[in-house]
């Protein structure tokens, strides 16, 4: 996104979540399915570094930090409103020493400037690509931010291909109210980006197509 587009999207997300952020985790746990499975599969190496793009309220980082206690975590989000909640969540867990948060655009970011890091062992994106204009660039930027042997983990809405049509239509209409659009071409984009970098890819359909889970791994 251009600087103007980034500012516009940041303003939009701040408006959407200025009040919702206070109840976001309570309400989203019922339909953001597959997030905990993603965290379980991170398999962070000892002393590893983990970046979440679109970290939102910090819910995933907090859970991952509990599980991988010797890793360092970094969170990037375009919404300052969401980051305020994330900071509170991190402070509540007393993990400020292992977690750094910053405002930024997931499609174009400089982690050296933001965090003093040039690469990460793991990067994950949980239900954020469906909210990011130019989301394909976020996939490419994430893969470019990995260390050799690192992996990118993505979970997001699928196309509900094995669920009733009425359910799919109702879900998409509901999500549109929050500027969320499931990415029908996620697998194709991942395949293309992995081919560019000679990365391996695993891709799973969860809950009858409700969610998709992809893991792209770079060679050592």
From TrEMBL:
Record-linked SUPFAM superfamilies: S-adenosyl-L-methionine-dependent methyltransferases
Entry keyword annotation includes Lipid biosynthesis: no
UniProt domain Methyltransferase: residue ranges: 47-173
Single GO molecular function: methyltransferase activity
GO BP field: methylation
Keywords: Methyltransferase, Transferase
Keyword Transferase: yes
Name this polypeptide is given: Class I SAM-dependent methyltransferase
Provenance organism: Mesorhizobium zhangyense
């Amino acid at each position: 996104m251009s600087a103007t587009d980034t500012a516009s999207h940041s303003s939009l997300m701040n408006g959407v979540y200025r009040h919702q952020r206070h109840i976001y985790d309570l309400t989203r746990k019922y339909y953001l399915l597959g997030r905990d499975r993603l965290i379980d599969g991170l398999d962070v190496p000892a002393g590893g570094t983990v970046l979440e793009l679109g970290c939102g309220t910090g819910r995933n980082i907090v859970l991952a930090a509990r599980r991988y206690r010797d890793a360092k975590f970094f969170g990037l989000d375009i919404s300052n409103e969401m980051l305020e909640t994330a900071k509170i969540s991190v402070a509540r867990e007393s993990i400020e020493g292992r977690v750094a948060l910053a405002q930024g655009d997931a499609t174009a970011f400089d982690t050296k400037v933001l965090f003093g890091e040039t690469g990460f062992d793991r990067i994950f994106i949980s239900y954020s690509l469906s909210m990011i204009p130019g989301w394909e660039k976020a996939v490419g930027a994430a893969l470019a931010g990995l260390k050799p042997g690192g992996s990118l983990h993505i979970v997001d809405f699928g196309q509900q291909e094995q669920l009733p049509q009425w359910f799919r239509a109702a879900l998409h209409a509901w999500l549109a109210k929050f500027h969320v659009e499931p990415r029908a071409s996620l697998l194709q984009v991942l395949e293309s980006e992995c081919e560019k970098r000679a990365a391996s890819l695993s891709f799973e359909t969860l809950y009858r197509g409700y969610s998709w889970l992809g893991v792209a791994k770079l060679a050592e």
